[in-house]
Amino acid sequence: MNSILLNMLGGQAAQNSTTANGTGGGIGMIIMMVALFAIMYFMMIRPQKKRQKEEQTMRDNIQVGDEITTIGGIIGRVVTVKDDALIIETGADRNKMKIARWAVSTNNTANEKIEAERQAAKEAAEAEKQKKIEDAAAEGNAKRKKTKKNKDDTFDE
Question: 87: domain range?
């Protein structure tokens, strides 16, 4: 049974590493388990902790006047901020609701600010690219005029 499992996991190398009595694959198994745990940590656990930290930072940075969306889908504007709760206004008739801070899903105001910054950076990059194209075109025109002038001078002689 042990050699079948080793053959499935390690192929011919696992078979060669076993001793005459069929034991000796324990170190290989330990290494495989450690490698599997490391892969799971870097692929699943670490990104989840990073997302949780970002969400907590977002919830801690909520200010009065921000528009938020709760995990239940309620959209409202923050009126009061307390340690563990928020009071928000919703709807046209400004109903006030008290919600727990952990129930905030997104901060729409912060998302709009980030999107506006991205758009401004994109427009600045586009303007810079356009300026480089215009400068290159102007430089090309100047070279052509200079070359044309030199050709005209050679024909005059």
Answer: 63-107
Q: In this model, does residue 113 exceed pLDDT 90?
A: no
- Provide the CB-side half-sphere exposure for 24 (13 A, CA): 10
At 11 the pLDDT is 53
**DSSP code of residue 103:** G
Could you give the CA distance from residue 108 to residue 94 in angstroms, rounded to a whole number? Answer: 18
Backbone region of residue 94 per phi and psi (left: phi > 0; alpha: psi in -120 to 50; beta: other values): left
Are 103 and 68 contained in the same domain? yes
| Residue 37 falls inside a structural domain | yes
Residue 54 lies in a domain: yes
77 and 49 assigned to the same domain? no
Q: Which helix (H) or strand (E) holds 127?
A: helix 108-156
Q: Which of 53, 67, 51, 52 is nearest to 113 (CA)?
A: 67
* pTM, to two decimals: 0.52
Beta strands 75-81 and 67-70 are antiparallel
